[in-house]
Amino acid sequence: MEEAKPGTEQPTPPTQQQPTVPSVPSIPSQPGPIEHPDQTSQPTPRVRHYDWNGAMQPMVGKMLQAQGVTAGSVLLVDSVNNRTNGSLNAGEATETLRNALANNGKFTLVSAQQLAVAKQQLGLSPQDSLGTRSKAIGIARNVGAQYVLYSNATGNVNTPALQMQLMLVQTGEIIWSGKGAVTQQ
Length: 185
Known about the structure:
This protein has helices at about 50-65, 90-100, 110-120, 135-145, and strands at about 75, 80-85, 105-110, 145-155, 160-170, 175-180. The chain is of the alpha/beta class.
């Protein structure tokens, strides 16, 4: 064994390694809002205006003369349904139809408010059409109507046809039907 000599170096103890901590990634700068080029150049959809009254008045006149229509009866007017190949304002058509039938001397119309209440009682939405005969008969009986008038705008949206059917609630029989052309204004 060798003697330790003064001045000789001792072996250095191993240094402890510091644990390496992963660096926190920097957050990239966020992009600003997406900017769209000016879009005012989009064409606005064409609004069509129809002469509903011109189509409805002659048809209503014929319906009031129909055989089997009892004066003083209550009439339920269903909303005009759009069955064309495009978009048209069926609400405007329905309003025109109700106006054409107002003060007709033959029918008492079920008010829009009565109709809305009856639909609600049967669990239907106010916009719901009476498309099925069973719905129409249920609502007509609910409001005491003897007749239901159905109306459909059909065909090409540029030159629609108006079809109307008058149904006797008691039997479900169509006692009058008519068809007329609707022109654009």
